[in-house]
Design goal:
The structure holds two protein chains of two kinds.
Chain A: H1 2-13, H2 15-38, H3 54-57, H4 64-70, H5 75-93, H6 95-106, H7 110-120, H8 128-139, H9 145-152, H10 169-194, H11 198-206, H12 211-222, H13 224-236, H14 247-254, H15 260-263, H16 266-276, H17 280-309
Chain B: H1 6-37, H2 41-44, H3 59-66, H4 68-99, H5 107-119, H6 124-133, H7 151-161, H8 166-174, H9 179-190, H10 192-208, H11 211-215, H12 225-242, H13 262-297
Classes of the chains: A mainly alpha, B mainly alpha.
Chain lengths: 313, 299
């Protein structure tokens, strides 16, 4: 009884604060938790006309939609594209900011360093739509800049169909991902490099170590921890497209009817099945499949993070 | 003491080349869009414009700003950016302020709910169903309401507000000020950097958004500029993919002159989307490093 009144007393005292907190949490419940719960329509016979509650009351169909997806004519293609895109982006995009940060660190002229660095993270703030516009103006078949240059140099006689042929899709995706994220993610590595104790370098110089040795034996080992943490974070969002989470934007924008053999991924397929064809439950099942893989990736990368750094993320 | 060895010279050469290449490949695409957007469209079809407009004109921009669809998209974008940013920063700020109090009852539960929501989401389909049933589809408010409480920004703000000494708040509370007064009169002024950072990021997010405009809105009057740009490029992309022989540029149904083409209109629109970002870039820069550091304090 005493405990209860004490509780009421402190609750009353912070009544206003509680109201704000609860309003915030209500927003969170509506816009985050209801959709999370709504994912069960992947196991249900849901029709859009049955409304919000219908997500929970409609009839169970078990794994019907998952089975359907596995037998889908596009299943292998979509899964393969998703994995190829995610893995290749990890392999090619991830090391670039590290190399760029090291290069920046080796620049003697501070003014040059500042100018280049400032410019380099501008693309991070530019929308993928604009990047797509740039890709289009550089690579289109009719008067794209790259085709113009290649023809002028006599390397090709006819314009290449960069945007329409499937084999060019992944290179375009990787290049644009590097272009957009390189400067931004280099900031983290540069911060790690700048916190390295200068005494280490001085000692190495005394020992006669050259620039390359210093990079290899001091700079790289000192930022190993940062590299691992960033790597783990990108692994956690592997299917979303790594740190930048750009898979959907890239696949949807750079992808088209001509190169869909390379560009159709789980996320765009969910969209096409759900919003374009109205097969909501089916699309939710595909989305859920991706979420499950992502959750496994998040937990296992967090597990490794704990193992390696001694603390979770 | 400082003797430059061959190795030093070599490294400096390599690094200079890398920096030069990065500089050029980052700046040139913007520059290219800029010069094409100021070039006569018919003339631009011939190609060969690399460094300077060959036939300078401002017709492309005039055409963009006289197209009713693009103009309305521009205003929708401005409106959503301003309203979306201001309301979300204030709302997330007030909620974060209350959650930053250590003595707040159920604080742990609230925080766990927030952190869980940072990692997991329901995905597109349930979100679409939710928006439909909340009658948010095809409404301007679909750009605003779902983003009111930003989990990520809340975590940054909470970790910042926690550092504010209680004594400051207590002294005003004793004078009978309510929490909203404390928030607006005390917390906001002393937390300008964190509010500026989050407002800038929020603004960039709203300005760049095209997804919600593409899939949650069908009314052409409510489309955002980023979406319209996407649509312009997609149309051109499709035309070329489907009929590679199409050589005449389809014109937008706009009044007036014939000096612009779909391509130069695209470039001009691209610049209209990009220039605001470049204009606020110095401010972004000033604050975002602080923002990143704050985020990593309690990530």
């Amino acid at each position: 009884m005493l405990k209860k009144t004490a509780f009421m007393k402190s609750f009353k005292k912070q009544f206003e604060l509680q109201v704000f907190a609860i309003i915030g949490i209500i927003f969170l419940i509506i816009f985050s938790y209801i959709p999370m719960a709504g994912i069960i329509i992947a196991f249900k016979d849901y029709k859009l006309t049955s409304g919000l509650l219908g997500m929970f009351t409609s009839e169970w169909v078990g794994l019907k939609y998952f089975r359907e997806f596995v037998n889908d004519i596009n299943f292998t293609m979509v899964v393969r594209n998703t994995i190829a895109m995610s893995m290749l982006k990890l392999v090619f995009t991830f090391p670039i900011p590290i190399l760029f940060a090291i290069a920046l660190n080796e620049v003697g002229n501070q003014k040059v360093k500042r100018v280049v660095q400032t410019v380099s993270y501008l693309p991070h703030f530019i929308s993928w739509v604009v990047v797509y516009g740039m890709i289009f103006s550089f690579f289109n078949q009719q008067n794209g800049l790259i085709n113009q240059l290649l023809v002028k140099m006599g390397l090709i006689s006819d314009s290449l169909l960069f945007l329409a042929e499937a084999e060019y899709f992944l290179p375009l995706v990787i290049l644009s991902d590097i272009w957009k994220g390189m400067g931004w993610w280099a900031i983290i590595f540069l911060a790690a490099i700048s916190s390295v104790d200068p005494c280490l370098y001085e000692a190495a110089i005394v020992d006669g170590a050259g620039r390359i040795r210093r990079i290899w034996n001091i700079t790289l080992p000192s930022i190993k921890g940062t590299i691992i943490i960033v790597l783990i974070l990108s692994l956690g969002n592997l299917l979303g497209g790594g740190l930048g989470g750009s898979n959907f934007d890239q696949a949807y924008l750079i992808g088209n009817k001509a190169n869909f053999r390379a560009s159709e991924i789980l996320q765009t397929y969910t969209l096409r099945m759900g919003l374009a064809q109205g097969r909501f439950a089916y699309a939710a099942a595909i989305g859920l499949l991706q979420s499950v893989i992502s959750v496994i990736l998040i937990y296992s990368s967090n597990f490794f993070a704990r193992k390696i750094t001694g603390e979770g993320l | 003491m400082k003797i430059r060895s061959k190795e030093d010279v070599f490294i400096e050469l390599i690094v200079s080349i890398i920096l030069l290449v990065v500089f050029i490949i980052t700046v040139y695409p913007f520059f290219y869009a800029l010069i094409i957007s100021f070039n006569n469209g018919i003339d631009a079809i011939r190609g060969g414009i690399f460094l300077w407009p060959r036939d300078f004109t401002t017709e492309n921009y005039k055409a963009v700003f006289s197209s009713l669809r693009l103009l309305s998209a521009f205003f929708v974008s401005v409106l959503r950016t301003v309203i979306g940013t201001v309301t979300s920063v204030i709302f997330t700020g007030i909620v974060s302020y209350s959650l930053s109090h250590k003595e707040l009852l159920f604080r742990k539960t609230y925080m766990n709910l927030i952190i869980f929501a940072m990692f997991f989401s329901g995905g597109l389909i349930p979100t679409f169903i939710l928006f439909k049933n909340l009658h948010l589809l095809n409404s301007f408010w679909v750009y605003i309401i779902p983003y009111q409480f930003s989990v990520f920004n809340a975590i940054i703000m909470i970790s910042f507000f926690r550092e504010i000494p209680d004594a400051i708040k207590e002294s005003v509370r004793i004078d009978g000020a309510n929490e909203l007064t404390i928030f607006f009169r005390i917390i906001v002024p002393i937390s300008t950097p964190v509010f500026a950072t989050i407002a800038l990021f929020n603004g960039v997010f709203h300005w760049n958004s095209w997804f919600d405009s593409a899939f949650f809105v069908t009314d052409n009057k409510l489309k955002t500029l980023s979406f319209m740009l996407m649509d312009l490029i997609k149309q051109a992309d499709m035309t070329r993919v489907m009929a590679a022989t199409v050589s005449d540029y389809q014109r937008l149904d706009m009044q007036g002159s014939t000096t612009y083409t779909a391509e130069t209109i695209r470039m001009a629109t691209m610049m209209v989307v990009t220039i605001p970002i470049i204009c606020i870039y110095p401010f972004l820069q000033k604050y975002f490093i602080k923002g990143i550091m704050l985020g990593s304090v309690k990530g």
